[in-house]
Specification:
Radius of gyration: 18 Å
CATH architecture: 3-Layer(aba) Sandwich
Strand content: 15-25%
Oligomer: single chain
CATH superfamily: P-loop containing nucleotide triphosphate hydrolases
CATH class: Alpha Beta
Order of helices and strands: EEEHEHEHHHEHEHEEHH
Strand order of the largest sheet: 5-6-7-3-8-9
Bound molecules: adenosine-5'-triphosphate
Number of domains: 1
Mean pLDDT: 90
């Protein structure tokens, strides 16, 4: 096994007789920010859920900080802050009550719940019901939830969906700070300009396999295209290739 912080080795995932992920090998070093890109159905969420321990590979192994999910599920879960692409909030609770509930589940204090809500700019609106929140504000609650326990690994599915330009910038700053503090970050996005701005490495998936990977600069160099978005369009054509 390598000294990578996240190591996926020969991972396959089969769901309902369909191969969703095929022979995936992926390594992420500590403190690295890695963006997973690819069209609809390429397998981004499936990979992130497997790393988060929500799904298990059909074949192959995944280590986070040298630990496999089946070795010690509690310790494994403690290593990871997972931000799902969607979540059905309890509409009756305020943002602060929601976050405090999640904090208590992790043995953390209400003060930490309030602090992390402030980090995502929801200190004032935190006392309002989540039912009154916009998509972007809900995204910020989910992001705060992933940050709660200051996890060694942040796994985020489409974290910038619905963020306005101001919060996009704040999100980038928070992620850069987390990486500078030694946290390792994996996220999926369709927004290649976001991946280019702050990911140390970009992995392009196609039909559950790695199609291309490198830094933004390397990929642009390889593809001879001024912008990754152009390269992406060239390579993948119309988004959504899997039948
Ligand atoms: N529970 C499931 N049952 C059947 N098929 C599934 C299931 N989960 C995922 N899939 C299929 O696996 C493939 C990959 O899905 P996944 O959600 O990982 O893709 P994605 O890259 O995150 O897509 P998007 O960009 O649209 O969010 C898709 O073809 C999807 O239909």
């Amino acid at each position: 096994m390598s000294d990578s912080f996240v190591h996926m080795k020969n991972v396959h995932k089969i769901i309902k007789d369909q191969t969703i992920i095929q022979d995936l090998n992926l390594q992420v070093t500590r403190g690295q920010i890695l963006a997973l890109c690819g069209g609809n159905g390429a397998g981004k969420s499936t990979i992130l859920r497997m790393i988060a321990g929500i799904l298990q590979p059909s074949q192959g192994e995944i280590w986070v900080d040298g630990l496999r999910w089946m070795d010690n599920r509690k310790r494994y879960a403690e290593l990871i802050g997972y931000m799902p692409d969607d979540y059905h909030f309890n509409q009756g609770l305020t943002a602060q009550e929601t976050m405090t509930f999640w904090a208590k589940l992790r043995g953390l204090t209400k003060a930490r719940a309030v602090e992390v809500l402030a980090e995502v700019g929801l200190e004032k609106t935190g006392t309002k019901p989540v039912s009154s929140f916009s998509k972007g504000m809900r995204q910020r609650i989910l992001f705060a939830q992933a940050l709660l326990a200051r996890p060694a690994l942040l796994v985020m599915d489409e974290p910038t969906n619905g963020l306005d330009p101001y919060w996009m910038e704040s999100f980038i700053q928070l992620i850069n700070k987390a990486a500078a503090d030694g946290q390792t970050i994996l996220f999926s996005t369709h927004q290649l300009q976001i991946a280019e701005v702050f990911a140390h490495r970009i992995v392009f998936l196609r039909d559950g396999a790695v199609s291309l990977e490198g830094t933004g600069e390397e990929l642009r160099g390889q593809l001879g295209s001024a912008r990754l978005q152009d390269a992406f369009a060239e390579l993948f054509g119309i988004i959504g290739t899997r039948k």
